[in-house]
Input
Amino acid sequence: MIEKADQIFVLLLHWLVGFLPEAWQHVASVVVCVAVIVAVYPALFAVAVLMERKGLGRMQNRYGPNRVGPFGVLQPVADGIKSLTKEDIVPRNADAAVHFIAPLVLVVAVFMGLAVLPMGRNMVLVEMDASLLFFFAMGASTELSVFMAGWSSRNKYSLLGAMRAVAQMISYEVPLLLSTVGVVMITGSLSLVDIVDAQTRYSWGLAHWNVFKPWGLAGFVMFVIASMAETNRSPFDLPEGESEIIAGYFTEYSGFKFALFFLGEYVGMFSIAGLGTTLFLGGWSSPLAALSWIPSWIWFFAKVELWICFFIWVRGTLPRLRQDQLMNFAWKFLLPMTLVNLLVAAEWRFVEGVWLRWIVGMAIVAGAYVLMGRVGMRRERLGPRSYRYAE
Amino acid sequence: MLGEGILKGLAETAKNFAGSYVSKERLTTVQYPEERVAPIEATRNFPFLVYDGEDAFAGLRCVSCQICEKECPPKCIYIEKSKDKKPDYVGKPQNYPVRFDIDISVCMSCQICVEVCPFEAIKMDTVFELATDDRFGGLLLDREKLSKSNEYYHTIHPTEATEVDARLAEEKAKVEAKAKAAAEAAAAKAAAAPPAPPAAKPEAPKPTGGAE
Output
């Protein structure tokens, strides 16, 4: 029974594909899986948007949307209808072809990343040996679409937003990648399925999640920060800082293309949250051996939703960074910390003795954190401002 | 240490999030169409014309002097003066507006018309639900729509309306006393000197003064 509930989608797929002749079955199962992914994530997107609007509202001591449907739960439907019926405006001077393709490229790239995420036991669309690399390759190509959008709009705000986005995403790609290297080093595999399998072991009823280890904890924290920057979430939402540059690279988008950007951004959030869950939070495995009866896909999506909730919480808390703070943080704090974290991972691998490697690992991480926080993030003492021409 | 402030901030927002479900005082939102707050007394948005008594036309205080029309900064008032006259609250014959239009799409709620009106005829209203699907006709208020009773004025701005009433009563009393004194003087004069010409003299300037 428990086994059936865990594998319900896999069994359903086999049953559905069973109606077709043998030669078609493989193609059909891929098509069905893709269709399910393309349907489920936009649905989650709608839920996330509602959660975000309600949650942010509550954090600011207001109700949030509460007019459409009971408690405003149908708000995403209304938003969808609105964006579908809106006029699609293309600026006269825009590069129409690129302007048209950009949101599609974003959505496609973002959905491609989802193909390699194991969303439950035996629930992965493409089992690839280097799926982590594939994921990052796809994640990096969202930068292309962002720049396409900003460039083709022929609008200074769009271009500024795109420049900011590219600078930010490339800067944070480095710590994002390096924070996952520790996991790869310890697991010895680039395959996400193997990484989850390695974490689905229990001792004293507790799972061997990577986040419960010193290098995993540090890597996890840095991964969360870098993933926020990578998805342009607040406090790293400079590329679309509405108080400065209207909406950044999608200023000139309206109607459904705008909705596609919005969708791409949120599905990007889901995919990066799914990757983080897979790498550090044990993917679809339960934290306690006693809770293993809950189906694996519930664990995966619950973790992803929790991750999204944390993103919303942070968005409700922190103000937007300044450009120099953003860059300083990436290059002077996150990058050295991730490099130190590689040392910790190596130490974890080679030092004998459970307690010793814990103590040494935590000491290195904590020491580097304090030192880097003191030295790297020291506020620059600026002298009195002098004016050359305006005096 | 680095990150301390972030944790503090996260705790604060979490407190707000949870608190908004627990304590009602945190949520200051008034859910407007169902709930509303009583407007404060100094609320104002667009002007209206005050009339005394029951009849909106007979009691209209406006004498069509057109000062407000001239003073209005965005020029949203349009007045057409009457050719004939009707008695005002003291019984003096005065002009009245044949047309009195205020384009509230132009009006900026500055209250200057109220400040300059010597007859306490134009006052600020508090009605704000003026949305209409006809952006020209629907936002051009004519004399009939603008005329509102003094009782209504009392309900929206009680303090101000009482002051205005006192002022008008004083004025009326003064005029009546004057008229009485004049009548008494005329009677005394008539009693002292029977010939008609001097008695008719004080009467004569009055109509000419009113016609100006």
Observations:
- The helical segments of chain B are 4-22, 67-71, 112-116, 143-146, 150-156, 158-192, 196-200, 205-211.
- The interface with chain A takes residues 1-3, 6, 9-10, 12-14, 16-17, 19-21, 26-29, 31 of chain B (CB under 8 Å).
- The longest helix of chain B spans residues 158-192.
- Residues 47-165 of chain B form a domain with the Alpha-Beta Plaits fold (CATH 3.30.70.3270).
